[in-house]
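Now for my pick.
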Amino acid sequence: MQHPPLQKDQSQKKQPLEIRHLAKSLGGAQLFSDVSLQLQGGETLAVVGESGSGKSTLLHLMAGLDSADAGEVLWHGENIQHWTASQQAMRRLQHVGLVFQAYYLMPHLNARQNVELPYLLAGKTPDEAHCMRLLELVGMAGKASRYPRELSGGEQQRVAIARALALSPPLLLADEPTGNLDEDNAGKVLNVLLDACNAQGCAMVMVTHSDRAANHLQRKLNLTHHRLAGG
């Protein structure tokens, strides 16, 4: 089924993410150094690395959830390190959608209410029609009133994807989003994720250990030997 594109903000035409010369150590061990990349609006990028390579940490730096030892993270050309923690948190709500391996759905909220949650966190009235349209986009409109305990793992991840896109962010960051799913469900959820990104017009960085998953995206980079290299 073809879905009409969701409404896009003009700011999505700008470069949603750039990182410059990032370096990070953990426990005295260097994870990576001098890592740079640029992500264009609507582009999808996979960062592949083995366990312990630092790919999740790199994603957290892109999201402003962690601080680098050196380097810069820019959203739409603005250095996020220049903002206060509260400014970062508020801008993150508007600029970045996050999808994790663990679904992090609120157990006391049904699927629709979980998708509406970012509006409440941003101090806005939920756009119920938009949230239902997102649930339809990920194939979950028929289960909008069900709670997480009543959904399978794949269904919960679909709801999490819809929630990440609720505020129409120009950037989606996904950390092993299919890591908790069997192969069949992983493929289905990955397709849902890419279709939803395309429909909403957002760019995406996905970190994964799976070359098979990475090959679905437009571009692939390997995080190896403390550097990013073309796949």
Q: What stands out?
A: The domain at 15-230 is CATH 3.40.50.300 (Rossmann fold). The CA atoms of residues 97 and 164 lie 4 Å apart.
